[in-house]
Amino acid sequence: MQTNALYKALGLSLAALLVTACSSKDVKEEEGSTVAQVETATNTVDQAALDAAAREAAAREAQAALLAQTVFYFDFDQSTIKAESKAALTAHAAYLAANSTARVVLEGHADERGTVEYNLALGERRGEAVRRFLLANGAAAGQIEVVSYGEERPAVSGHDESSYEKNRRVEIKYQSR
Amino acid sequence: MVMRLMLSLLVLLSAAVHAELTIQVTQGKQSAIPIGIVPFEWDGLQPLPEDVRGIVNDDLGRSGYFRTLAAENMIGRPYAPEQVVFGDWKNLRQDFVVIGKITYDGSGYAVDFHVMDVHQKVELFHHRVRGTASQLRDMAHYISDFVFSKLTGIPGVFSTKIVYVTTNRERNRFNLNYADADGAREQLIFTSTQPIISPAWSPDGKRIAYVSFESGRTAIYFQELATGKRQMVLNMKGSNSAPAFSPDGQRLAFVHSEGGNPDIFVLDLASGNVSRLTDHYAIDTEPQWMKDNRTIVFTSSRAGGPQVYSLDTITREVKRMTFQGNYNARPRVTDDGRKLIYVHREDEGFHIASQDLATGAVNILTMDTQLDESPSVAPNGSMVIYAATEADRSILAAVSVDGDVKFRLPSKYGDVREPAWSPIF
Q1: Phi/psi class of residue A151: alpha, beta or left (left: φ > 0; alpha: ψ in -120 to 50)?
Q2: Out of B216, B306, B370, whose CB is closest to A118?
Q3: Which of A140, A136, A100, A114 is closest to B352 using CA atoms?
Q4: What is the mean pLDDT of residues A31-47?
Q5: Sign of the torsion formed by the C-alpha atoms of A45, A49, A50 and A54
Q6: Chain A nearest CA to B253, separation (Å)
Q7: Where are the stretches annotated Disordered (chain A) (predicted)?
Q8: Rounded CA Rg of chain B
Q9: Which of A164, B17, B83, B208: CA 20 to 30 A from B379?
Q10: Nearest to residue B306, comparing CAs of A70, A161, A120?
């Protein structure tokens, strides 16, 4: 749902660009008698605009792909953000910085091993590590809340390492965009 | 809100999806005392609403301290001292025999029972207990406590209660339950779609403190068992968890965290004043009071991984208590102050360990269950109840503090977690 809203926003701006491109083409067709030079010039402008639009679209798509990543994993008994999480977290921070009304809850989780309260604290530490990263990259303190669920809400229910690594996580949940 | 809560409670109570804990003994003491509990004489026309002798027999048998004799292997069924043929019981290799008679006088039941010493050929004790039909189970546990304490010198805990949390596979239904220590007579205390953790008994056994996530953050609630009355006690910004009453009932230690740094705090219950006890950038959690009302044991990651520490609440001095292994957490101390019980990682497994506080010797109590957590010590210091994972489900299990006796309380429904053993009422 969050992703949908984002694509909708991107779709709108992309459509606007295409409308601009089309209208200049319309003008060109209406003025069919104008000299070739002008037409070429118009074509060049169109091409540049389209290229820019394509580049922008590609960049936005890449950004959207990063923003679509909302779950970040951790090592056992660790709350250090992994290198592989940083690009996507930076994108979330940029989004929050650009959208001051956006609000997120960071849900911290632990795998089932170890004790309930220690895992609650660990989940909170993980959420807090993500919060600090988002703040350092442009998000505002008022946009972020951390909630730890400890080991109470595993993503998957298995009792092996492959399940555990999916459960040691922070999930970014957008409350508003 | 309150109305809706009450309605959902009513619906749940009528639906009565019970965890139905049943005890399975997996290991007993080598030195268990052989005892014959003879079926009690009952001359009523109707069968008794409870099998009093059966409850006593089960209590003593699964305590691990006694080895009971099946009724079909008994030679006679005496119910008065003069009917006991000591030679028969000696041949059956019994040390003690318990006999008794149940009578009904129109207002209630009475059990007259006798504890007979086979070797000395004498009656050791004679006692009478009275109650209504609904109290027959309590009367049976009372008899068990009486026999247990007289013959072992240790107070019995058969009349105590446990609270625990049950949850479904989807983790969207959490029930806080209350039952007899043998799992019977389960009652629902509170139910929520959000997690419930860390139930703790008040020292008078009248209320439970626990953590509920219902408000969107972890908050601490008190609930009276007799009335069901519920009160939010701590909901400070950040998280509030791990409640622990002081033995005198005047203070509540808990964990509060704002900005991701959990520390130990204490709430004075009379004044409502909150004060901080630890201030460390590491995780400090799982406080538990010692009997002196002054020392707290707790888990801290200040040395890297979780280890157990003690905290003097007056001088604020902190001392490390565990040194063996890289994961020791959730400490509990037996009431006599002699043993520290905690979750210990051995290789890749999490087990319950007992540490002798005088010598420092560590004894792993539970190598046969997996992912052990949430140990809670019986009020007589004899047993530890804890949560473990068995065949993809979370169950309750118990082990004696010396590791000799083991039993499990598997549930027929869902996962059972976070047990807390009551004080002696």
Answers
A1: alpha
A2: B306
A3: A114
A4: 55
A5: positive
A6: 14
A7: 153-177
A8: 23
A9: B17
A10: A120
Six-digit token string for A26: 């319309």
DSSP, residue by residue, B147-175? HHHHHHSS---TT-EEEEEEE-TTS--EE
Q: How much is the pLDDT for A40?
A: 53
Of the partner residues A112, A129, A157, the one whose CB lies closest to the CB of residue B371: A112
pLDDT of residue A21: 41
**CA B349 to chain CA centroid, nearest Å:** 23
Q: Could you write out the DSSP letters of every residue in B341-364? A: EEEEEETTEEEEEEEETTT--EEE
What is the pLDDT at residue B285?
Answer: 98
A124 part of contact set with chain B, CB < 8 Å: yes
Interface predicted TM-score of the whole assembly (ipTM), two decimals:
0.90
Task: Say which amino acid occupies B405.
Answer: V
Is the Cβ pair B373, A114 closer than 8 Å? yes
DSSP-based three-state secondary structure for B21: coil
Question: What Å distances lie between residue B104 and B43, B56, B57, B128, B139, CA to CA?
Answer: 9, 19, 22, 13, 14
Please say whether the beta carbons of B61 and B68 come within 8 A.
Answer: yes
**Contact predicate A49/A20, CB 8 Å:** yes
Equal fold, B2-21+162-421 vs B31-152: no
Q: CA–CA separation, B387 vs B334, rounded Å?
A: 18
Domain boundary assignment for chain B: 2-21+162-421, 31-152
User: How far is the C-alpha of A81 from the C-alpha of A73, rounded, in Å?
Assistant: 8
Nearest of B159, B148, B143, B185 to residue B63 by alpha carbon: B148
Which of B236, B241, B265, B341 has the most A C-beta neighbours within 10 Å, making it the best mutation to test the interface with A?
A: B241
Nearest CA in chain A to B330: A115
Q: What is B2-21+162-421's CATH topology? A: Neuraminidase (2.120.10)
Q: Could you identify the residue written with the tokens 């809850």?
A: A105
**How confident is residue A140, by pLDDT bands cut at 50, 70 and 90?**
very high
Q: Walk across the sheet containing B349-356 and list its strands.
A: B328-333, B339-346, B349-356, B362-364
Q: Mean pLDDT in chain B?
A: 92
Could you tell me which chain A residue has the CA closest to the CA of B243? A117
Q: Which of A114, A131, A146 sits opposite B343 (nearest CB)?
A: A114
Chain A neighbors of B278, CB-CB under 8 A: none
User: A12 CA to chain B: closest CA distance, Å?
Assistant: 35
What pLDDT is recorded for position B213? 96
Asked if A125 and A75 touch (Cβ cutoff 8 Å), the reply is no
Rounded to an integer, the average pLDDT of B262-278 is 97
- Minimum CA–CA partner of B394 in chain A: A112
- Cα–Cα distance measured from residue B39 to residue A157, given in angstroms and rounded to the nearest whole number: 46
CATH topology for B31-152 is Rossmann fold (3.40.50)
Provide the pLDDT for residue B20: 67
For B360: left if phi > 0, alpha if psi spans -120 to 50, otherwise beta; the answer is left
Contact call for residues B40 and B111 (beta carbons, < 8 A): yes
Find the residue in B nearest to A128 (Cα).
Answer: B260
Write out the two tokens for B133: 């039909």
